[in-house]
Design a protein that fits this description.
The complex is a heterodimer of chains A (about 800) and B (about 190). Chain A is built from 29 helices and 13 strands. With about 800 residues, chain A is α+β, with helices and mostly antiparallel strands. In chain A, the strands form four sheets. In chain A, strands 9, 10, 11, 12 and 13 form a five-stranded antiparallel beta sheet that branches. By secondary structure, chain B is α+β, with helices and mostly antiparallel strands. Chain B has helices at about 1-30, 110-120, 120-130, 150; strands spanning about 35-45, 55-65, 65-75, 80-85, 85-90, 95-100, 130-135, 140-145, 155-165, 165-175, 180-185. Chain B has an eleven-stranded antiparallel beta sheet with strand order 6-5-4-3-2-1-11-10-9-8-7. The interface of A and B includes residues 153, 155, 158, 164 and 188 of A.
């Protein structure tokens, strides 16, 4: 090979040395990057979308990350008989209640356990909202006793009368009513929850792990399956599960399986194309190198700068780096005999570096301190593209024998000349089509964006449908509307909650909402507890009042001694605190609504049947040392995604301006700029129009795909309008672009046939875009140059 | 005579069971044939916490197959109405409240003790109770012992006495020793 080496610009003696140290540097860098990547976590949380310094968004995030709604697991049991479903439901609940991974398991059969009843009973004078001074006067006691007597005549008295001697004023009954109330419950059959049509027995489990702790959720899902296997033995009952965590794990499994299948197919297709075109196995591994290096470098750069990587960054960045697969192809197709690899690259370099520079600058615009997700995407692509172009330029010539030529190089028949012939009329027609489509788009202004965050979910649609069905049947809050109170401590949060509860009662009376829940319903603030304790009469007074009240009633004398003792004890009892309820069913319900976070405590007041959100936002009572916010999780999340997208669009706009600038710097000619960029502009318009015509709404997946189309399309434009290329070189360029376009089409059409919304969106957008870019660059680039020159 | 008494026991015991079972079926069939009942009742509850028994009275209404209403008139008006799996309770203080009996497993056996007996629905009775029948079609008593331990915590047994196709009294024996006796007179 050194005999074919022409000694181009370098003394022959340095050649072997150069060949040695470049791969070594790359290897060391790759190892370093690999180590960084391996030691940095990938997280699946939504902070990627959230702008910094938005207090509502912060609360929202905390909700999405660890709030009770994300930890819910919805379980449905179908098949076999109603009795079998109910039996399995009971046994499954029994199993899961003993499992550490779940903080709460409910199937409707959750009468309070005896221990919890006793807790409520012991603290009834602090907890019951009906405790008031008039309740302990002679008149009040008399009314209560008469009421108890009436209840005794009921056939249901058998269930309650044991509480009577200690609780003649019926505080426990009040507390049980509070406990049963709150947010709506599904219908019951055979004592457990069932869907309205009776097809599914329903259970609700709350995991200890957050919805975004995929490992924890996976373990919880496995625990449910194992418990079901034990509980459902012998019955023909089928298990269905849903909920944010379940969806995430199932989606991850399905996405992984689907992505693995598709990427294997895509890789096989790529390999076949490269081998088929160039008849060389070497093109396969050499061709893959820039992409691999780009992935490693991009991931390492993000990990170094941010300390963690968002799953969505990874997915989007891999898409964007698709462009790097084209770089080695340009080299392969432009190889010819009588020229070293180094020389070919030197000729290609001005165009190639312009291709890379346009993408690099486009990505630079994405880096903004406000949106970590967008910045990560920018950094990842920036580092990846830089590494890939450097690999193509310096590593490939060091690895390839200097005179290497693929067995079937980029020679192309005479038909190519006809294809390459400038056709100004066709170009004009294409341009007119673009202007027409753009006008139609602007005039008709069809709904462009998909604002529902559900569309971003990688979960298959069938799973999401199941989730909705189970939710509807369980009456679980589908649209999470709640009031969040942020305070420095639990007591402040509870006090504020009590004020809001009183205010909400008035709003409910006006019909603004159906109901609400909240921690203060289960545990009043210490202030309120102490107020209630202060209302309790002294033992002497109470005894006198009671004696007067019982006169003439048939109760046995001395029956109410436990009552006298309890009131005397309650007067001096210490207030009940959240930690006193730990480990009980009451405590778990409280824990779900009163959370200790990084910056203090938050109290959650889930709302149901909100009809007038404005009335709730407007008059929400505030306090001096705590803040209350009305949150509509769906609206807020969608707003965040829309904000993210708007910021991204503005950034892409800046990126486009930078691209124009850098192309001008590279070509020093406005004609060149027009020839390189107008085709891709036309292609983008055509793709957007085609997507809308196909009934798609644009989500972030489409947007990122359009960015890849922009990157690839600019490359096509640059290569088709390469200055000073002779007809033979132009044929080789056509060959290279045909291979690039063909392989990109194959890969992305494979993706577009996927049932997963994300893969489908990416596949469809990029394959349409690559096709449109190729045709537009082929027809427009030359005429734009030649007509003007 | 004493010796023969033993013989009677030995012979009568195994033979007596199928016989009682058959009579129970006969009574159940007779009860099932009744399309509607309207009766007045008087109930006397003896409770440990009260000095004197609590006496109530009112009207019982039944319509085959699944409607039963217990309307207390004295001393205070109160109404319990069970229709299929719905229980409606109406009291002057709390107004009308509706419960799904499916959701309150501890209530259902109380309702079924009277309703399923009057409907002649032996299968439903056996779902909640162990049945112990004595007597003849003309005069019988049916002792219902709860099967569910959860329910047995409250209730020892319900004894229903009847003549031919009508119930004449329902005696409830609670686990804590309290008891009530409701006598029923068709109108």
């Amino acid at each position: 090979m050194s005999s074919r080496f022409s000694g181009f610009s370098l003394p022959g003696g340095e050649e072997p040395q150069r060949r040695w140290w470049i791969p070594l540097v790359w290897l060391l860098a790759a190892l370093g990057c690999g180590w960084i990547v391996a030691t940095t976590p990938v997280t699946a949380d939504l902070t990627a979308f959230v702008p910094r310094a938005d207090p509502v968004a912060d609360l929202l995030l905390e909700q999405l990350r660890s709030g009770p709604t994300t930890r819910l697991m919805l379980i449905g049991l179908a098949g076999d008989s109603e009795v079998a479903r109910a039996t399995v439901s009971r046994r499954l609940a029994e199993h899961l209640k003993n499992n550490e991974r779940f903080t709460r398991v409910a199937n409707g059969a959750d009468a309070l356990p005896e221990a919890d009843l006793q807790t409520l009973f012991t603290h009834r004078y602090q907890l019951s909202p009906t405790v008031a001074p008039e309740r302990f006067t002679t008149v009040g006691l008399r009314a209560a006793l008469e009421q108890r007597l009436r209840e005794l005549q009921s056939p249901l008295a058998v269930l309650q009368k044991r509480w009577l001697p200690g609780d003649p004023t019926g505080e426990l009954l009040t507390l049980l009513r509070v406990w049963r109330g709150g947010v709506g419950e599904p219908a019951k059959r055979l004592g457990v929850w069932f869907s309205p049509d009776g097809e599914h027995a329903l259970l609700l489990a709350e995991t200890r792990a957050s919805g975004y702790d995929l490992a924890g959720q996976r373990a919880a899902v496995a625990a449910v399956r194992a418990s079901f296997a034990a509980a459902g033995a012998g019955a023909e009952v089928k298990l269905t599960m849903s909920g944010p965590g379940v969806l995430a794990t199932l989606a991850e499994d399905q996405v992984r399986a689907e992505a693995e299948l598709r990427s294997t197919l895509a890789t096989v297709a790529m390999v076949l194309i490269l081998i088929g075109v160039y008849r060389s196995a070497r093109t396969v591994w050499v061709g893959a190198l820039p992409m691999l290096v780009a992935l490693l470098a991009g991931a390492a750069a993000v990990d170094l700068l941010f300390g963690k990587m968002y799953m969505i960054t990874l997915a989007f960045s891999i898409t964007l780096l698709g462009e790097t697969l084209d770089y080695p192809t340009y080299l392969f197709s432009h190889r010819r005999s009588g020229e070293t690899v180094e020389e070919t690259l030197c000729q290609l370099w001005p165009t190639l570096r312009l291709c890379a520079a346009t993408t690099l600058l486009g990505c630079l615009a994405m880096i903004t301190p406000d949106f970590p997700g967008l910045s990560q995407l920018g950094v990842f692509t920036l580092a990846g593209i830089a590494a890939a172009v450097a690999t193509t330029r310096w590593l490939l010539p060091a690895l390839l024998p200097s005179g290497w030529i693929p067995p079937r190089p980029g020679e192309i028949g005479a038909w190519a000349d006809r294809l390459l012939e400038p056709r100004p009329k066709l170009a004009l027609a294409f341009g007119a089509l673009g202007v027409l489509l753009l006008t139609v788009l602007i005039v008709r202004a069809p709904p462009l964006w998909e604002d529902d965050i559900a569309a971003l979910s990688p979960a298959p649609r069938a799973l999401l449908r199941l989730d909705q069905e189970l939710r509807a049947a369980l009456g679980a809050p589908e649209v999470g509307r709640l009031i969040v109170i942020a305070a420095s401590d639990a007591e402040t949060a509870l006090r504020h909650g009590e004020r809001i509860a009183a205010w909400l009662d008035a709003r409910r009376a006006e019909g603004a909402l159906d109901g609400y829940d909240g921690p203060m319903r289960y545990l009043p603030s210490q202030q309120t507890q102490q107020w209630r304790q202060a209302q309790l009469p002294t033992p002497e007074t109470l005894e006198t009042h009671l004696a007067n009240a019982t006169t003439g009633l048939p109760f046995k004398s001395g029956l109410f001694q436990p009552f006298l003792d309890a009131v005397a004890a309650a007067r001096a009892a210490p207030p009940l605190r959240p930690e006193d309820l730990r480990g009980t069913l009451l405590g778990t319900r409280l824990d779900a609504l009163l959370l200790a976070g990084e910056r203090g405590w938050s109290a959650l007041l889930p709302l149901s049947g909100v009809r007038d959100a404005r009335a709730l936002i407007g008059g929400l009572p505030q306090a001096a040392d705590s803040q209350a916010h009305y949150l509509d999780l769906r609206v807020e999340t969608n707003r965040l995604v829309a904000d993210f997208r708007d910021t991204a669009l503005i950034r892409f706009g800046w990126g486009a301006a930078l691209i124009v600038a850098v192309v001008w710097v590279g070509l020093r000619s406005w004609r060149g700029v027009a020839a390189a960029l107008l085709p891709v502009l036309l292609a983008l318009v055509v793709v957007v129009a085609a997507l809308l015509a196909l009934g798609e709404r644009l989500s972030l997946f489409h947007l990122v795909s359009l960015l890849l189309v922009l990157g690839i399309g600019v490359d096509y434009g640059l290569f088709f309008s390469r200055p000073g290329a002779d007809p033979a070189a132009r044929r080789r360029t056509l060959h290279a672009l045909l291979v690039c376009c063909g392989s990109a089409l194959t890969v992305f059409i494979l993706l577009s046939t996927s049932a997963l919304p994300a893969l489908h969106a990416i596949g469809l957008t990029v394959s349409l875009g690559v096709m449109a870019s190729f045709v537009a660059a082929l027809t427009l680039a030359r005429p734009l140059l030649t007509r003007m020159s | 005579m004493k010796r023969w008494g033993w013989w009677w026991l030995l012979w009568g015991w195994p033979l007596g069971l199928p016989a009682a079972d058959e009579v129970l079926d006969q009574v159940m069939r007779a009860l099932a044939a009744v399309p509607a009942v309207e009766a007045v009742f008087r109930e006397e509850k003896t409770l440990a916490i009260l000095q004197e028994p609590l006496v109530t009275s009112g009207v019982l209404t039944y319509r085959a197959p699944a409607y039963l209403r217990k309307q207390t008139l004295r001393p205070r008006p109160e109404e319990y109405e069970a229709d299929d799996h719905w229980l409606t309770v109406e009291t002057p203080t709390d107004g009308r409240r509706q419960f799904d009996l499916n959701g309150y497993p501890q209530l259902r056996p109380f309702v079924e003790a009277i309703r399923a007996t009057q409907a002649g629905d032996r299968a439903t009775l056996e779902r909640y109770y162990q049945l112990d029948f004595q007597g003849t079609p003309a005069g019988w008593s049916l002792r219902l012992t709860p099967r569910e331990p959860e329910f047995a915590r409250y209730l020892t047994a319900i004894v229903i006495r009847g003549r031919a196709a009508s119930i004449s009294s329902v005696e409830t024996l609670e686990a804590d020793g309290d008891r009530s006796l409701m006598t029923v007179n068709p109108r």
